[in-house]
Design a protein that fits this description.
The protein is α+β, with helices and mostly antiparallel strands. It has eight helices and 14 strands.
């Protein structure tokens, strides 16, 4: 055991070693004196190397790391058992679709294995198909997406039209490996949308319209994945709006006074034309002059809204964070006695 090795120990550890090996006067020695005494003793063969004991802080850190690793393994295992691959597309209005997907790690691993050497140059894309008569599909375009997102807005033209999407990995040579296919949807005719901005408003406010435009109330019905997604988000069943939203008595007018108040916010701004803007991680439509506007629901909570703008060449990025809180109070009703004079 060399002197440099001994210096890595604390004075307390060196003192314990000196005491165990019978070094005279160890309790009054400083660290360097303990190092010299133990080095001389080691040269005579009297000191056996000892494993350095971790500190209490190091022990706590090790326990925290172990707990995090265990929790992460359990989470990954649970996700692999409960989640499956799915790609869901919904109609926003005549000119916009919204895609949502969930892909498991095993699916990405299979894609990597199947593509082999081509994987190194591959990137994720959404492939847009326009559906024709007799279930034929025409490949219109590929949209390159970011690897870390799970939502995307797709602009479409010439409504009404039917579409289907696939998500997968594409190489510059044009090779494509599909990992999930969406449900088919049909956009409404132009002029039937009642939206007031260029982006999706809160799904809970327009769920029945979205569900209907995505085929939910047609004879064939929407895909099971779309229904499960909406029911999961809203925690209520989907069906006829008259039955699911208001119950069996919705068709009759009650005598009780109805009064409900809600709120929403509009986030708007301007960036350089051609910039890429995201709000809460989702892309925002930027007009030709660089302006943008997004209408959002204002739930009964505090929320943090990051807005990020990247220059067209990707060199510069700016971020603005909005912190907004809603606190609504409902007062006791006031009922007047109209029978009294």
């Amino acid at each position: 055991m060399t002197a440099s090795t001994l210096r890595t120990y604390t004075a307390k550890d060196l003192g314990q070693m000196a005491r165990q090996h019978g070094v005279a006067g160890w309790h009054s020695m400083r660290k360097e004196e303990l190092v010299r005494a133990l080095t001389r003793l080691h040269a005579k063969g009297g000191v056996k190397p000892q494993k350095k004991k971790p500190s209490e802080t190091q022990k706590r850190l090790d326990r925290v790391r172990q707990a995090i690793a265990t929790s992460r393994r359990a989470e990954l295992q649970a996700n692999s058992q409960t989640k499956g691959d799915r790609l869901v597309v919904m109609v926003r209005d005549p000119y916009w679709l919204h895609a949502y997907w969930e892909l498991t790690a095993s699916t990405v691993s299979r894609a990597r294995a199947a593509m082999g050497q081509r994987w190194h140059g591959a990137y994720p894309v959404l492939r847009v198909f326009r559906l024709r008569e007799r279930d034929s599909a025409v490949h219109e375009r590929d949209i390159r997406i970011h690897g870390g997102v799970s939502h995307w807005y797709i602009d479409v033209v010439d409504p009404p039209a039917s579409y289907r999407l696939e998500i997968g990995y594409r190489t510059d040579a044009g090779d494509f490996y599909s990992v999930a296919r969406s449900n088919p949807v049909t956009t409404p005719a132009a002029g039937t949308s009642d939206s007031v901005d260029e982006n999706w408003t809160d799904i809970a406010q327009q769920v029945d319209r979205i569900y209907a435009m995505s085929g939910g109330y047609s004879e064939a019905g929407a895909s099971r994945e779309l229904q499960e997604l909406l029911e999961e988000r809203l925690q209520r069943p989907l069906g006829s709006p008259m039955n699911t939203r208001y119950g069996a008595g919705a068709s009759t007018m009650g005598e009780e006074m109805r009064f409900a108040v809600d709120a929403e916010i509009t986030v708007f701004g301007v960036a350089n034309p051609g910039s890429h803007v995201t709000l809460k991680g989702e892309p925002v439509q930027v007009r030709e002059d660089g302006s943008f506007a997004v209408r959002l629901a204002l739930p009964e909570q505090r929320q943090v809204i990051p807005v990020v703008a990247s220059s067209a060449d990707g060199v510069e990025q700016r971020t603005t964070i909005l912190a907004i809180e809603r606190n609504t109070k409902t007062m006791e009703p006031l009922v007047r006695d109209i029978t009294r004079p």
